[in-house]
Amino acid sequence: MKRSLTRRSLLIRSAAVVAGAQAAGVIRLWGADGESKPGVQMYMVIAEFKKDPAGTLAKLAAIGYGYVEAFAMAIANIGEFKRMVGDAGLGCPSGHFAFGFVPTERLLDDASALGVRYAVSSVMPPEQPKIDDLKNGNLGAIMEMLNHLTADDFKRMAAKANEIGESARKHGLVFAYHNHNVEFRKLEGGTTGYEILLKETDPSLVKLEVDAGWMAAGGADPAALIAANAERVKLMHFKDFSTVTPPINELGPEAGSHIVDLGAGVAPLKAAYEAARKVGTEYFIVDHDPPFHGKTAMEAAKVDYAYVAVLMGG
């Protein structure tokens, strides 16, 4: 499996074995002073984290990040992760979870134990993948499904998102949908999957984590979409691409090969940030998938932080 599929691969492989860690009570980490700073998606430094969990979190704090967004599929012990995050002086307002791969209630229990405010879908299939595909690591079949979603698939995804949102509310959480690029492929009639999701989900139950880079790569205008959905956009991801023309509407090596350091590409991140700030978006998160083109993940995290810090400070 090529590196540009690593994130989806890790999600799908993890989904077969994820178990909800049960913890008493809910400790909120999202009220930290660091929320005025940018955050970082833990997937970016997942290899470093596996080798040195506490040290990696401390290094992220030293760079200047105020909080992390958990990649929950890679957390072996929620209690220990929370302790290390707190020791590093970081917050953890949100996390990505394997919705659609693992039972919803188990994931929401994990989110509550983790102490996040926002439980976010990382990749959400329209229906539960076949258990044999999960157990046997048949990623090809799952990727094929994600790259060829139909209008009916998106309608099923919207219905599922509403269900998750209702359950999340009962847990005292907020569900948010994270986009990639596949949602912006033109479907029959000229509509897109994202338009279907927006139309058929309840705005009070399904909020949005806008990945501005993936949106741009898919052919959409992130600033315009943010402005048009002001009440729903609660989190924003920064990701940059060396090209967004023509649109890239499939996940895979082609898309991954164009991901670059923030500010080195052509995604309209400044306009997206300004639109998000204007509508009151709460969290701004660096989400840089590998490869890092001659840098270590931590070196890339420094470069990306510097770019976002200028935007947020300016």
Give a quick precis of the structure.
This protein has 314 residues and is of the alpha/beta class.
Structural category: alpha/beta
CATH class: Alpha Beta
Spans of at least 5 consecutive residues whose pLDDT stays below 50 are: 1-5, 16-33
Alpha carbon gap, first and last residue: 41 Å
Number of strands: 10
Lateral arrangement of strands in the main beta sheet: 1-2-3-4-5-6-7-10
In CATH terms, the superfamily is Divalent-metal-dependent TIM barrel enzymes
Number of helices: 14
* Overall mean confidence score, pLDDT: 89
Q: What gyration radius follows from the Cα positions, in whole Å?
A: 18 Å
Query: What gross morphology would you assign?
Result: globular
**Proportion of β residues?**
5-15%
Order of helices and strands: HEHHEHEHEHHHEHEHHEEHEHEH
How is the main sheet built?
8 strands, parallel, barrel
Which architecture per CATH? Answer: Alpha-Beta Barrel
Count of domain modules: 1
Helix content: 40-55%
Polypeptide structure, described:
- The protein has about 325 residues and is an alpha/beta fold.
- It has one domain (about 5-314): Alpha-Beta Barrel (TIM Barrel), CATH 3.20.20.150.
- The protein is built from 14 helices and 10 strands.
- The chain has helices at about 5-15, 45-50, 55-65, 80-85, 105-115, 130-135, 140-145, 150-170, 195-200, 210-220, 220-230, 255, 270-280, 295-314, and strands spanning about 40, 65-70, 90-95, 120, 175-180, 205-210, 235-240, 240, 260, 285.
- The strands form 2 sheets. Strands 1-2-3-4-5-6-7-10 form an 8-stranded parallel beta barrel, surrounded by 6 helices. The chain has a two-stranded antiparallel sheet with strand order 8-9.
- α4 (about 80-85) links the parallel β2 and β3.
- α8 (about 150-170) crosses α9 (about 195-200) and α11 runs parallel beside α13 (about 270-280).
- The protein is globular.
- The relative contact order is 0.15.
